[in-house]
Target: L-2,4-diaminobutyrate decarboxylase
Amino acid sequence: MTWDVEEFVRAAAATVEELAAHVDESRRGLTPVLGRRPPYELAERLGLARWIREGGMTPESHAEFLAAYLAEGSRPHHPASLGHQIAAPDFPAALADLVHGVTNNPMAVYEMGAAAATVEFEVVRWMLGKAGFGETGGGVLTHGGSLANLTALLAARAAAAPDAWAEGTPGDLALLVPEASHYSLARAAAILGLGERAVLPLDADPLGRIDVARLPAALDRVRRAGRRPMALVANACATGTGLYDDLRGVGGFCAANGIWFHVDGAHGASALLSEGHRHLLDGIELADSLIWDAHKMLRTSGLAAAVLTRRRDDLDAAFRQRASYLFYGAQDFDSAGRTVECAKAALGLKIFLNLAWRGERGLGEYVAGRYAAARRLWELGRERPGFVFPYEPQSNIVCFRYGTGDQAAIRERLMADGSFHLTSAEIGGVRHLRVTVMSPSTDDKTLEALLDRIAGTGDRTA
Model:
């Protein structure tokens, strides 16, 4: 069945019209910030079974379906969207999704998407420069930070155990991480064959940041247990708290002891673009590997994450594959040998178009603005009775408590009426409310309303 170009144009126009209205009403806060009907109820409302069984959708019925579809789910453009670390995507990145959706050039094999691959090369080169890795570094884009962490640790394993691809992962390897690290690191260790028991926690301060002074003791414990470090991971920033580890201190220790230094910069590496915040990443150039998500603070849609290594050959060593139909001859421009994915989307185009429209300065100003908004919440909340903030925020993530009641119950009430979307996290074993300021529409008025709503709700649940 071939494309009906005229029908596509009509359907695309209807789609753009519905999406534009969705973004506009979201950013003006005219709707609840999220909808989450039970699946069985939502499936009935959307008529899913009938459409699957009968087909026959037209541009007109598609518009009706899309309006109902967009009414449910979360609205990251909404000023009250303060929950997860997902971007309010800028429209240039959305255009890139449309281009890839139509052209379908999976570019990990250069001949299948030369323009897409070339754009990715240039975007990665730009990111390497920002990280301080320069022309000697290597990099690739993947579908998300979990795959990026896995890929980086594959490179670390290849450095520590060059025969592991053929012979299996040695049983004496260990991964050293602070407990505040993202769960994908422990998952990657299990996938790599280390097992969760090989993931050894590092000593940290009460807020979960690596205690650099206690790293020698941690290394001694690892060695006395008959293990050798495959990699040591630092957070930039931690997913739960938004706090940065001391990268220079950790990196210096790793360099002195011959340990692979990996930085999970999925969320916080974008601070490299903000003149007032790049100091938080001082020492990043000491890392052997770094991940950096664009679908967080670079405002692309999901998913687009970079894996960057200080030495190009380290990334090339991560994978060993044979497939006579794919890997043969001179393939200098293929990136399939550097990623789990083969059919990889044109991820670089999303980042490139955001840069092409906004420039480094524009994206840096966005990062600085959202970091400033989180700090503003901290400033406003500290002045109110009942609110306790355990730390001064370093990023656009901030945790706090209201009163002594059930913080999860407060969150659930706000979510149930659609007034605010926020999450929660434990600090020192104590549950806190957690805010991540992502939407450009979130301002002081939003933050004041949030504090008012939490106080009112918290008093009722106490």
User: Anything to note?
Assistant: Residues 98-354 form a domain with the Aspartate Aminotransferase; domain 2 fold (CATH 3.40.640.10). The mean pLDDT is 95. The chain has three domains: 1-31+37-70, 98-354, 362-461.
